[in-house]
Design goal:
This protein has one domain. The chain has one helix and two strands; from the N terminus they run ββα. Strands 1-2 form a two-stranded antiparallel ribbon. It has 61 residues and is an alpha+beta fold. The longest helix is centred in the C-terminal third of the chain and has 11 residues, at 39-49. It binds zinc ion (ZN).
Length: 61
């Protein structure tokens, strides 16, 4: 059964948002980062895990 990575809701009643890590990794594998019942859960998960910390797309002025 698919459940939300953040709140553990059953995703069968949602249109889930799934997140995969892109082709950035050098090992060539796509990893599933998680799946969420909506963007609110995704956003909360990102905040909680600090996933935007150290992101490389920083704008240098
Ligand atoms: Zn959720």
């Amino acid at each position: 059964m698919n459940t939300c990575t953040y709140c553990d809701s059953d995703l069968s009643s949602y249109d889930p948002v799934s997140v995969e890590r892109g082709s950035i990794d050098t090992d060539g594998e796509r990893r599933r980062e998680g799946q969420f019942c909506n963007y609110a859960c995704l956003s909360a998960h990102i905040d909680e895990e600090g996933l935007t910390e150290g992101a490389c797309c920083r704008i240098e002025l």
